[in-house]
Amino acid sequence: MGAHGREKMRLVDTHVHINFDSFDVDRDEVAAAWREAGVAHLVHSCVDPSEFSKIQAIAHRYPEVSMAVGIHPLDMDKWTEGSASEIIRLAKSEPKVVAIGEMGLDFFKSDDRALQKQAFTAQLEIAQALDLPVINHCREAATEMAEVLETFAQTKGSVKGVMHCWTGNPEETQWFLDLGFFISFSGIVTFKSAKQVKASAQMVPSDRILVETDCPFLSPAPKRKEKRNQPAFVKYVAEHVAELRSVSIETLAQQTTQNAQRLFNLPEDLAS
Question: pTM of this prediction?
Answer without folding.
Answer: 0.95
